[in-house]
Amino acid sequence: MQEKLSPSMFIGIQGDDYISFGSGQPDLPPPERVFKILPDYRQFKYGLIQGQENLRNALSKQNQFKGSDKDSFVITNGASEALDLTFRAICKPGDKILFHKPYYYSYIPMAKLSSFEPVFTETIKGKIDFDDFDKKVRDCKCVLINSPSNPTGRVQDVNTLKKIEKLCADLDITIISDEVYKDLIYIRENYMLSGPHVVTINSFSKTFAMCGLRVGYLYSNDKKIIHDVIELKTHTSMNTSILSQEMAYEATKVPREYIKDQVKIWEKRRDFIYEGLQKLGLDLWKPEGAFYVLPKIDNPKDAVWNLFKKHKVITYLGEWFGAPDRIRLSYALDVEKIEEGLKRLEKYLKETS
Amino acid sequence: MQEKLSPSMFIGIQGDDYISFGSGQPDLPPPERVFKILPDYRQFKYGLIQGQENLRNALSKQNQFKGSDKDSFVITNGASEALDLTFRAICKPGDKILFHKPYYYSYIPMAKLSSFEPVFTETIKGKIDFDDFDKKVRDCKCVLINSPSNPTGRVQDVNTLKKIEKLCADLDITIISDEVYKDLIYIRENYMLSGPHVVTINSFSKTFAMCGLRVGYLYSNDKKIIHDVIELKTHTSMNTSILSQEMAYEATKVPREYIKDQVKIWEKRRDFIYEGLQKLGLDLWKPEGAFYVLPKIDNPKDAVWNLFKKHKVITYLGEWFGAPDRIRLSYALDVEKIEEGLKRLEKYLKETS
Questions:
Q1: Lowest model confidence (mean pLDDT) among A5-9, B138-142, B166-170, B325-329
Q2: Contact residues on chain B for A30, CB-CB shorter than 8 A
Q3: Torsion-angle region of residue B238: left (phi > 0), alpha (psi -120 to 50) or beta?
């Protein structure tokens, strides 16, 4: 049965008896104001394929997109669709895409699905090894950077990111920068990769806990990429839900303090699970952002399967992320539940030791 | 400038001075009950990739899906995503897909985008020529049937549909049946293609005027296709907006009379525009379903461009639909506006005659 393990079997499973370290979904609700617009909402017609103007305007006025305008954004069904469309807009079948390991599990099937060839650069404790990166990137069409990273929780050094920016600009290689965890970062402010060669992927799912409503976006100064993504989206899904977009627009008005307060909660949980797993004797890297840990474990397939079936604890297999000797735990749940989950994990570890 | 004409330049354009025969979007609002659930809505977590259970259960209990269960459905970001995922689940690069001409404009770029090869069967006044179909289908991986048709408004004969069902079953070729206009049909009840080889595509956009909210679905008895589509969707967009799905679920409770009353309105408009265009001397087929007409016109590119720029009338170029000597008009607007649009069209025709 373990052979059949896949992320889709866990997504959406809810129930009080389960402790889910699985899907990366905040448990705290979105800011209340995103729901406040609902009672009077009566729109129903197709929206612009590129996304609603109010939302794109609001994004263009945010600090990190200084100097941009609404035409540099496309609103999508979550960051997932933004990524799928960006890959399909940039690459032709056979083109190579560079990923750093461990990687978010959807990247590879997404690339293969469109007959693009994934190429990998190894990391050292989750940090990009620039020399290896330099070697591997040269015959790639584009490169995917994900910092803070799902599944490692690691944040790439600013120095490395700047070297990557320069190298890719020199080589005319597009950087697709998945920064969906840009606001959930514990060690410094996010460094946003930028320049004419960069496509930034982002989302309202993590910062504002709006996963199920599916609003993501891409940002680029490359007019051709924006045009081509819109052309694709016209055929493959049309506009993103206009109501979800209106809720996302409300989220753009939420004061920065909201995010700061959220980060404090995440950091406490991070400390709790990091120390807890260390106490259980597991080998892991300290997360610097996002809400995942990726400890080593013996027989990971048995672990994920038995934790699920016997102990009602959902974890994800490291293999899906290119880390076959590890499992991923999301700590997007309250400390009491993390504690209960760690107890069950301890029980499992004792049984199998 | 006419060279740059594309559907995406018109979608979402709204304004009182324009008469839009462009996008296929009902002007009448959705049933009020779909909005009634909004004030108390507070969900925000990821939903099941396959779609919410209440919605899939409700669909499985509808007459046309008799004997089905919730596992035979996947809820998608409109019919567009259902189509894109179904093609990608069934075909490999190089596989041939058969389309009948004229076709909905997204089919072809959607197929080419994934390196599938579109193959065409001609129609006679919009009706499938079974002999030609039989010849062309034999080396195809799957075939797309769209009845009632966008852009022709034509409905395929039941006899032809039954022959297609049998032939494709014998040849082990999948039929993808795009029936998004199944409820907007003037000449008889819809005949739903069925059998283990059929994937039915449908949507809440047309029947319930919910275009902008993006809820479509696919239905199939082929467990492998359902599984593969879910696997793809896990990576390319995850769940469809849970709030849009909840609104669609409300729509499933709307009594059948609502649809019957809608059809009466559409039929009046159909008669009005069909007679109006005939009076202007245009050559066209009588629509039997959906809400489009596809008249012949001289210099279609000039017509679409000048109608838009000079007369503020949006029409679509027949070329996008594989009908280069025609233009498409959607009559999803009230009779007064259709009348005004026809006046402007008359003016244009006089200017150019």
A1: A5-9
A2: 44
A3: left
Place of tokens 């190089």: B94
* A113 contacts B234? CB cut-off 8 A: no
Mean pLDDT for the stretch of residues A298-324: 96
* CATH code at position B193: 3.40.640.10
Asked whether residue A63 is assigned to any structural domain, the reply reads: yes
Residue B5: pLDDT band by 50, 70, 90 thresholds?
confident
On chain A, the residues whose CB falls within 8 A of the CB of B14 are: 45
- Judged by CB atoms closer than 8 Å, whether chains meet at B81 and A242 is answered as no
A239 has pLDDT over 80: yes
Q: CATH number of the domain that A309 lies in?
A: 3.90.1150.10
Is there a single domain that holds both residue A6 and residue A134? Answer: no
Please return the burial class of B300, using the count of CB atoms within 10 Å of its CB with bins 0-12, 13-18 and 19+. buried
| Same domain as B198, residue B68 | yes
Contact: B115, A115; criterion CB under 8 Å? yes
Please tell me whether residues B342 and B245 are part of one structural domain: no
Is the pLDDT at A18 greater than 70, yes or no? yes
Q: Under an 8 A CB cutoff, do A84 and B8 touch?
A: no
CB-CB neighbours of A3 under 10 Å: 7
Residue A176 lies in a domain: yes
Judge: A113–B88 Cβ closer than 8 Å, yes or no. Answer: yes
Among residues B186, B218, B251, the one where a domain terminates is B251
Closest-CA residue of chain B to A88:
B113
Please tell me the distance in Å from A293's CA to the nearest CA on chain B. 20
Domain interval for residue B304: 2-28+256-352
A206 and A272 in a single domain? The answer is no
Query: Which of B251, B286, B309 delimits the end of a domain?
Result: B251
| Partner residue facing A30 (CB), from B44, B49, B214 | B44
The answer to whether residue B132 scores a pLDDT higher than 70 is yes
Residue A14 has pLDDT above 70, yes or no: no
Q: Residue A6: count other Cβ atoms within 10 Å of its Cβ.
A: 16
| Nearest chain B residue to A104, by CA | B235
Is the Cβ pair A109, B235 closer than 8 Å?
yes
Instruction: Provide the domain count of chain A.
Output: 2
Segment among A16-30, A171-185, A243-257 with least mean pLDDT: A16-30
A81–B237 C-beta distance less than 8 A: yes
How far apart CA B63 and CA B342 sit, in angstroms, is 39
Asked if the Cβ–Cβ distance from B236 to A25 is below 8 Å, we say no
Domain membership of residue B316 (yes or no) is: yes
Give the pLDDT of residue B1: 47
Nearest CA in chain B to A231: B8
Query: Which positions in chain B touch A231 (Cβ < 8 Å)?
Result: 6, 8, 109
- Model pLDDT for residues B204-257, shown as the tens digit of each residue: 999 999 999 999 999 999 999 999 999 999 999 999 999 999 999 999 999 999
Contacts 24+ apart (CB under 8 A), B52-59: B52/B242, B52/B245, B52/B246, B52/B249, B54/B249, B55/B245, B55/B246, B55/B248, B55/B249, B55/B252, B58/B249, B58/B252, B58/B253, B59/B217, B59/B219, B59/B252
Rounded to two decimals, the pTM is 0.95
In a domain, B36, yes or no: no
